[in-house]
Amino acid sequence: MTDLQYVYQKERKEFGRQCQFADKKYLMVSIPSNYDDFNSYILKNPVSEGTQLGKQFSLSEVNTVSTTTENRGILHTEGGWPKDVNYLDSEQTLRYRRKLEKDETYITQVPRMGEKVEFCILQNNSVNIYEEYFSDLDPAPIIDRCHSRTMYVYKDVEETPRPISHLSWSGDGGSKLAITYCDTNFQKYAFGRVSFNSYIWETENPNRPLYTISPTSPSTCIEYHQKDTNILVSGQQNGQCCTFDTRAGPYCVASTPREICHRESVNSVLWINSKTGNECFSGGSDGQVIWWDTRKFSERLDLLYMDPVKSDEQFLERSYGISVLEYETTIPTRFMVGSEQGMLFFCNRKGKTPMEKITLRMQCHASPIYTLARNPSFFKNFLTVGDWNARIWSEDCKESSIIWTKYCNVELTDGCWSPTKCSLFYLSRMDGNVEAWDLLQQQSEPILTIKVSDHAITCLKPHESGKMIACGSASGFVHLMEVSENMSFSAKNDKAILNAMLDRESKREKILEGKLREIKIKLKKQVELQDAKVSDLLQLQAEMPPEENKVQDDLPKIKPELVQALIETADKDFFSMINEETQKRIKALDNDGHDKPKKSKGHKKKHEDDGTDTETHMEHSTEEPVSINGINGHHENGTATNGYHNNENGHDINGNDHELTENGNDHNDDN
């Protein structure tokens, strides 16, 4: 019998290490039986117990007692005639009427009743009970509470949920909704386990997407063409821009080369109102704004860096990353750019130099600007959303916003104006709520807060009818919300009232800006005067003799801005010491009973120039000489106090009288 065998061939390195077994005398555990414990063992009787995990419900039926009903009717065709009178016989009825008319009760009751009836008839004829006294007034509006409801929910068809990055309604009345999915977490798509597909949904069919878009990189933003609803432009996470045609299939029909496109993710792309209708511009995190022609993506039409420094030389290294772009078709040459550092750039494409293209830079928020949208009724007013609040700005006020919301407890993610109600705008939050703010109703609180999802709301997009708003969440769901009628349309005078409010707030901000500018100018002048005084003091200090300046070298160094304050403090201390010492001397003389100091004889001196005589009467001072050392031995006027001081009575510390002449010279005569 032949042996059946099969040979396995394997390399030696794949065998692994050789197992080496050895016998050892190891006792792990040994517990001998204890026979004394056998007597205490009791056999437990089995007990049967039942458990019910489900809740118990009881059913009770109650039926009310049925009521038996019966229908009865009476037909009354002729007045109440007696049984013996046939109402169909005209002669019998006539004889019966004549009989009643001859009755005394009939003769007395009919005139009485006639008076009452006549009074009512006359009153009714004099007053028109159907007259409308206030027909010219408008009817009072019916107060309707703001409310909303969820119409449809569009779920991502992929197994792995992806956050919603952008939404776009089609231009044919909003019958289709384009949704892009992109997770901005670092290296989320590194291993290729997440799909890049985006979808176009039909508004009334949330079960299955209408079209599929398959880009080469996750799409961060997408926009429908204004006129052709089959063409879309999209910005991708790798920096490229591409166009899609739903008639040509799911793949892009044209894309920008990697050599000339953005270096980082494209955060916003918009169509431009051009003659051909094929131009668009995009902004990315690399700080570049690039203009494209979709017919020739291989070349850039124009390029602009968002450099925060105002100069003609622009550098990509110091440019701010772009978070959002704003473009209004009625203003074709002007656009606005929101940066990731919270700075807003006002730009004009007609400019020839970078300084002419970027006309204004303004710091708006402490975080990236997520929303930048003009009011559909007032183009000079626009909305910005960032950090924890939303702000409304005016192009006339270039230093501060005119209206802003209070700070929320959670960060805001997006915002938009209502296309049909001029005073209404929506804000989305990180906690899954959507707030509706109406400037004409209240400014301190939102008029409606909608709990849309348990996850963060990443983007908002209102329908052009104003009745619906699409809310994209971080969990991959898009909720289509319908709002009430009072949130969909503006009242008769809403536009005029809002215009007056915005103008009033703009004027207020202009007045505050003017006051602030005046305060800054005054402070600047005060600083310049103080610097001039300090410089004069330092100059006098430099002109001092060496022996006096030597004392200064031994003193600690003092900052120039503190010299003036120290001089003023020394002057106040000096005069306070003089006054205190004078009061003490006067009190001492009063207590000792001394007489007043004797007056010295006047001295005459004839001036050689005018020949006039001057006589000065002076008193001998009883005060001791006082030596005051100021800062560096100087007062504010630069006069040195070298150990003595001339008092008001004209005596020096030696008791000599000083006679002051008109030319300022003093003559000393010994007493």
UniProtKB/TrEMBL annotation:
Composition-biased stretches, type Basic residues, lie in 596-606
Q: Which Gene Ontology molecular function entries are recorded, alphabetically?
A: dynein heavy chain binding; dynein light chain binding
Q: Which GO terms describe its biological process?
A: cilium movement; outer dynein arm assembly
Keywords from the named record:
Cell projection, Cilium, Cytoplasm, Cytoskeleton, Dynein, Microtubule, Motor protein, Repeat, WD repeat
**Composition bias, kind Polar residues: at what positions?**
638-647
Residue ranges of the region described as Disordered: 586-671
| Compositional bias (Basic and acidic residues) | 586-595, 614-623, 648-671
Protein's cellular compartments: Cytoplasm, Cytoskeleton, Cilium axoneme
Please report which protein family the annotation says this sequence is part of: Belongs to the dynein intermediate chain family.
What is the protein name given in its UniProt record?
A: Uncharacterized protein
Can you name the source organism? Answer: Chironomus riparius
